[in-house]
Amino acid sequence: MRRIIISIIALVALTSLSASAQKFSKGHVVGFYNLENLFDTYHDDGKNDYQFLPDGENNWTEAKYEKKLHNMASVIRAMADDNGRYHSILGISEIENRHVVEDLVSQPEIADANFQIVHYDGPDRRGVDVALLYRPEHFKVLESRSIPFTFEGSAINFTLNAEEQADFRTRDILMVRGMLDDEMFAFFVAHLPSRVGGKGQDLRPRGAEIIYGNAVALMSEFPGIKIVVMGDMNDNPTDESMTTYMHGRETIAETGELDFFSPFISMLKAGYGSLAYRGEWSIYDIILMNKALADAPKGTFQVLPIIKKKKAEYYARIFQQPFMTQQDGPYKGTPYRTFSNGAFVGGYSDHYPTYIIIGK
Question: If you ran DSSP here, which 8-state letter would residue 172 be given?
Fold first, then answer.
């Protein structure tokens, strides 16, 4: 309980200090949002989406789907209103297919953003993927690819045997490279394997290992490229997957040439959280950036501090507003989710969105 109280205070403080995010003159909002099961009402061949059908376990009707779309768009719009601009780049997860993303970006709350979509159908058996939304007036795509989760070439001692590895299916990792204004960037969007049933202790490190290997290859091929890694990592920024395999570092000063600055390490230590489970706050919705962005040359895009509180300075934000938060009951103060104890409650997501701001 003490942990929740501390975190709620921190979240309120984070909201109240958000004005500093509006003081950048030329820059971009880059963020991530787990949309918590954005499914349409139709069956996709080969996918276990039966609970999200009108006659399925969740009685997933067109009305509920439309409510979900409206809620997700309302959060994205609220962030735009708060920052004075839409995201230039927004990674999303737990989306069923391209169709639901097209429905999302056409919602009246955010249609004027003209978000474009990068998405690939992945192998996840439940049918959820990741995607990238971008504003074409700011970002020009040069290439994109869907990176599969594989076990080959890893030094990790996996608990899954060879047969289990061959049968394993999870979300691919999305990589999109392009020009953000006049600078080259690459964005990785991930949704690493779940913790359900206590699983994934070696699978999430493998996912981070895959992302890191691909990021280092890009840095070698395109010297000076600026890289942002974002996603629902199903781990905290202080866990082994993020510190050892993703080379996440707490401060810019300790971020080496092949490391990644991980601003949510200090925020987790300060009591912030993007989701709560059994009274414990965590930050699974992580954003990291390479040294080329974290410690960029003057006059080029670099990550900016969003929150300044006493002697602390934070380079990321967890976006939380009262309408996105449960206001009563046993889950008071936590994200107001779509489902609670198996019942549709009409909320938003079980995760708060996160973002960084980059500017010159």
Answer: P
- For tokens 């690459």, name the residue: 186
Q: Are 96 and 129 in contact (CB under 8 A)?
A: yes
| Adjacent-strand bridge partners of 226 | 185
Whole-number Å distance between alpha carbons of 112 and 288: 28
How far from 137 is each of 20, 128, 213, 357, CA to CA, in Å?
25, 28, 30, 17
* Triad 181, 184, 188: Cα angle to 5°: 110
Model's pTM, two decimal places? 0.93
How many distinct structural domains can be found in the chain? 1
Per-residue pLDDT of the chain (360 residues; tens, 9 = 90+): 434 444 444 444 444 344 444 445 568 999 999 999 999 999 999 899 999 999 999 999 999 999 999 999 999 999 999 999 999 999 999 999 999 999 999 999 999 999 999 999 999 999 999 999 999 999 999 999 999 999 999 989 999 999 999 999 999 999 999 999 999 999 999 999 999 877 779 999 999 999 999 999 999 999 999 999 999 999 999 999 999 999 999 999 999 999 999 999 999 999 999 999 988 999 999 999 999 999 999 999 999 999 888 778 999 999 999 999 999 988 999 999 999 887 899 999 999 999 999 999
> By residue range, what is the domain housing residue 71?
2-359
Q: What's the CA dihedral at 276, 281, 282, 287 to 10 degrees?
A: 90
CATH of the domain at 227: 3.60.10.10
Map residue 181 onto helix, strand or coil: coil
